[in-house]
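quick one, 287 residues, struct below
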Amino acid sequence: HERSGLQGLNLINSFLFRASTENPEHAKFIAKLIIERATGRKVGEISVAAEKSLTGIDLGQHGICMDLYVEEYEGKRTARVYDIEPNNYGADELPMRSRYSQALTDVKLLETGDNYKNLPNYISIWILPFDPFGKNKMLYTVKNCVAEDTQIVYNDGAMKLFLYTGGEFGGNEELKDMLRYFSESDEENAVDPELSQLHSIVQQVRDNRKVGEQYMTLQDYLDNEIKRGVEDGIAQGIAQGIEQGKAEAVAATVAILRELNISEEQILEQLMQKYSFTEEKAKSYLN
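---
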């Protein structure tokens, strides 16, 4: 059955994911579930920060905002850090985005005078509704290697995991079940106790009036920004042609929504609804 508004969102949607991880205990449960099913190993003691922002090295340089930032401890030492990102951006951006996220994370992990051997392992986990490499796998593991001889062990402690929610190969049934739930966050897809607990968290968020009001406010804001962008663009574009002015307004609106961390999926949907664009034409404004 088709559901609208907040009830119709799935967990890969940035708004619903962030709302579901606002509660620290919920965030810890969700982080542990994702890490264990993505890596196949049990997780020890962890701390979790939702929507953790890291600034650039200097003023004016690009920062990042992680959906979930996780530190895993061995004794008092941080042994691993995880960056968990449900993501709707296009596949072309992923390699550079993941590279930049790692670099900005790494530079914050060593104090002055620390030995490089104390640098924690870094694992990023990207949950994607599209296939980033076109091989129909649910799990793609990316590590650095020696190109001339891949048998040589080159362990710099960095690993990137790209999870495709529609993938058929690789991984295991537990991972496949979790990815199906992320893609279609309905009760019938909560097929084991952990996913049932996850669905309970998600449904609490969906039924929360305050969260619903926040979502409606966001939608109203999106509507107003698009309307204002069209009006401004047309007004400014009269001399150069209405269509060109409208195109510039749409492009400006897309830029504004990206600055607000609105997902590409939501922006695409808004462009198709408000302008009656085809999906292909709407995507042309996202490139």
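Strands lie at 46-54, 64-74, 77-86, 121-128, 139-142, 158-164.
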